[in-house]
Design a protein that fits this description.
By secondary structure, the chain is an all-beta fold. It has 2 domains: 307 residues, Glycosyl hydrolase domain, family 43 (Tachylectin-2, Chain A, 5 Propeller), CATH 2.115.10.20; 132 residues, Trefoil (Acidic Fibroblast Growth Factor, subunit A). 3% of the residues lie in helices and 47% in strands. The strands form 14 sheets. A 4-stranded antiparallel β-sheet has the order 4-5-6-7, with no helix packed on it. Strands 8-9-10-11 form a 4-stranded antiparallel β-sheet, with no helix packed on it. The longest helix is centred in the C-terminal third of the chain and has 6 residues.
């Protein structure tokens, strides 16, 4: 995958007055939800210029595909059923978690299915299509992936590291205990594993064992010589969340000790943004190829009546992934419905971002939590062609000036607040590729940093103009 938010390169004498190159990973925004009632989503950006999207449908009875030239375009793209469950026997029930992959010029779909006479006899299966267009081509059943242990198994995904292809999946081993673990094996072809599989993760932590003992839905993203494998944990209600395994790309991936598990979830329910049970993710890349995109499902409510698997309202969502200074991914929080937020980096301190701390706006590097430095650019509260910057983790709170200091405060409904929280976005005063924000009610004053605190001031020098220029990432 492409790199995330690599720090821009400074040119010039000092950081305080230097010119910073535009960021390597400029902002991309999408509008959520991308697809209602579509769980376990998978989006592939193919070399033919299309994004291909598949997901679990609530009836659990078929595999569907959409395609579009943009990620957002998938929301309205026509949907084609390319395969339907069998009327009897294997592959006759619980058609779950399809993934579409392009391998050696052919299309493959990996999915899980039960049998008509035993709907919980879930096993992984593969379809193959040799046509250029997988929506109109003929799909051939390559059948079940043969695993040494013939038990409940699902969520197969495939990836390549250093030229070797692997299959990762979730499976129950009665000798280990209830629930599902993650397994890894090499592949001799796209539907056959070779050698002895290894167990690389078992649900043991409290956050992995709520309701059920679950490690499932593996997905891989690679960057900087590291292999990052996300997975989902716990029951498929509001407790569902994402975990992370990390290995060096040069390590023996079939040695379980090569994998380190992050001790806490990396993506979980967020009451403030109204997102619950995020998980079963995959990864794609933005249209310009410069940003990594997290693809996942969640629900817009916490409480579920009955079995969560019978609730049809898991929906497909996307948002940008950011990368920490140490090279690890930062998924942040599942953002609120609507337009996804951006981060704003400083023109002359490119490793520093606008963030709120105790509601005061400031510049800082290595912001944690990430969402403190994410803002949704919305139509200005005053209208008239302005914009307002809404906090990602405090929806309804906006950047506003008070005594010319920038703060994040809750919209109180007054005309004074609307004016203080509205700005006119201009090409950057120090670099037209950037952005400068002019106060709506104090024309000539711009958001700028001074001693790393944000204020609205009138820029008069080149340093002032640099301090008032930001890049959206």
């Amino acid at each position: 995958m492409m790199a995330g938010t690599a720090a821009a390169t400074l040119t010039g004498a000092t950081a305080g007055t230097a010119h910073a190159a535009a960021p390597a990973s400029p902002a991309v925004t999408y509008t959520n939800t991308l697809a209602e009632q579509r769980a376990d989503p998978h989006i592939l950006k193919h070399t033919d210029g299309f994004y291909y999207f598949t997901a679990t449908v609530p009836a659990y009875d078929r595999i569907v595909l959409r395609r579009a030239t943009t990620i957002q375009g998938l929301a309205s793209a026509a949907e084609t059923t390319i395969w339907t469950r069998h009327s009897s026997g294997e592959m006759g029930a619980h058609i779950w978690a399809p993934e579409i992959h392009s391998i050696d010029g052919r299309w493959y779909i990996y999915f899980a299915a039960g049998a008509t006479d035993d709907v919980w006899r879930i096993r992984p299966y593969v379809l193959e299509c040799a046509a250029a267009d997988p929506l109109t081509g003929t799909w051939t059943e390559r059948g079940r992936i043969a695993l040494p242990l013939d038990t409940f198994s699902l969520d197969a995904t495939t990836f390549v590291v250093n030229g070797a292809r692997y299959l990762c999946w979730a499976q129950n081993d009665p000798a280990v205990g209830s629930g599902t673990n993650l397994y890894l094996a090499r592949m001799s072809n796209p539907w056959t594993i070779t050698g002895t599989p290894v167990r690389i993760s078992t649900p043991t932590a409290a956050w992995e064992t709520v309701g059920h003992r679950v490690n499932e839905g593996p997905a891989v993203i690679q960057r900087g010589g590291k292999v990052f494998l996300t997975f989902s944990a716990s029951a498929t209600d509001a407790n569902y969340c994402m975990g992370l395994l990390t290995a060096s790309a040069s390590a023996d991936l079939l040695n379980p000790s090569s994998w380190a598990k992050t001790p806490t979830p990396v993506f979980a329910s967020n009451a403030a943004t109204g997102q619950y049970g995020p998980g079963h993710n995959q990864f794609t890349v933005s249209e310009d190829g410069k940003s990594d995109i997290l693809v996942y499902h969640d629900r817009g409510y916490r409480d579920i009546t009955g079995d969560p698997l019978n609730d049809p309202n898991r929906r497909t969502r996307v948002q940008k992934i950011y990368w920490k200074a140490d090279g690890t991914p930062d998924f942040g929080i599942p953002v609120a419905d609507g337009l996804t937020p951006v981060r704003l980096s400083s023109h002359n301190f490119p490793d520093r971002f606008i963030r709120h701390w105790d509601y005061r706006a400031r510049l800082e590097p290595d912001v944690s939590p990430l969402a403190d430095s994410q803002f949704r650019t919305v139509p200005g509260l005053t209208g008239t062609g302005t914009v307002s910057l809404e906090s990602a983790n405090f929806p309804g709170y906006y950047l506003r000036h008070k005594n010319f200091e920038l703060r994040v405060e809750k919209h109180d409904g007054t005309s004074q607040f609307r004016a203080d929280a509205s700005f006119t976005a201009h090409p950057g005063l120090a670099d037209p590729a950037g952005i400068s924000y002019e106060s709506y009610n104090y024309p000539g004053r711009y958001i700028r940093h001074y001693d790393y605190l944000l204020n609205v001031q009138t820029p008069s020098t080149s340093t002032d103009r640099a301090d008032a220029t930001f890049y959206a990432q």
